[in-house]
Write a structure and sequence with these properties.
InterPro entries: GIY-YIG_endonuc, GIY-YIG_endonuc_sf, UPF0213_domain. This is Excinuclease ABC subunit C. Belongs to the UPF0213 family. It comes from Kangiella profundi. With 100 residues, this protein is α+β, with helices and mostly antiparallel strands. The chain has one domain: GIY-YIG endonuclease (3-Layer(aba) Sandwich), CATH 3.40.1440. Helices cover 48% and strands 21% of the residues. The protein has 5 helices and 3 strands; from the N terminus they run ββααβααα. It has a 3-stranded antiparallel beta sheet, with helices on both faces. The two termini are 24 Å apart.
Length: 100
């Protein structure tokens, strides 16, 4: 079974969060970095990956996505800060690994 990913993107000012789920995080990041998909990410510039989880399936990722979306902003910030205290854009690390 193919793994799933749930992720949070933000804009450079960290004022907007976009939570999504996919079975191909590398492709999703490429599309969002290059403004190919998702009107919200294009409109608000949400292209910095600040959080992600790997799940056993896309179905589990979608379930987790809904859990995260139901959190208030402070809950999402806490989740991000535990995983990525410096709020670095992690997409470069993931895309670099994929290219190797």
């Amino acid at each position: 079974m193919k793994k799933g990913y749930v992720y949070i993107l933000t804009n450079p000012r960290k004022t907007v969060f976009y939570t999504g789920a996919t079975n191909n995080l590398g492709k999703q990041l490429f599309e969002q970095k290059n403004r190919i998909s998702e009107r919200l990410t294009r409109s608000y510039g949400c292209n910095e990956l600040v959080y992600y989880e790997i799940t056993e399936s896309l179905e589990k990722a979608r379930e987790r996505e809904e859990e995260i979306k139901s959190e208030c902003r402070i809950g999402k910030e806490t989740l991000i800060e535990r995983f990525n205290p410096e709020w670095k854009d992690l997409s470069g690390d993931l895309l670099a690994v994929k290219k190797r």
